[in-house]
Specification:
By secondary structure, this protein is mostly helical. The protein contains 3 helices and no strands. It has helices spanning about 10-20, 25-50, 55-60. The chain starts with 9 loop residues before the first helix and ends with a helix. The relative contact order is 0.07.
């Protein structure tokens, strides 16, 4: 895994403190939520494409 450094404002540390977590933990939680939403969008599009092009996928052996 690669480390990524992102600049954040003072408000980010304040929010983390208010939530009782470190800024790193808050960033990790935010990234996990973002990736969950993106994964859902990708699954939705994959299902839509599979349904729309099902006959082609069957002919290709997928």
């Amino acid at each position: 895994m690669r480390d990524i450094t992102l600049p954040v404002g003072d408000g980010f540390a304040d929010l983390a403190d208010a939530r009782g977590v470190t800024p790193e933990e808050l960033a990790q939680q935010a990234l996990a939520r973002f990736l969950d939403v993106e994964a859902t969008v990708v699954r939705h599009h994959a299902l839509r494409l599979a349904l729309r092009h099902g006959s082609l996928l069957r002919r290709l052996g997928a």
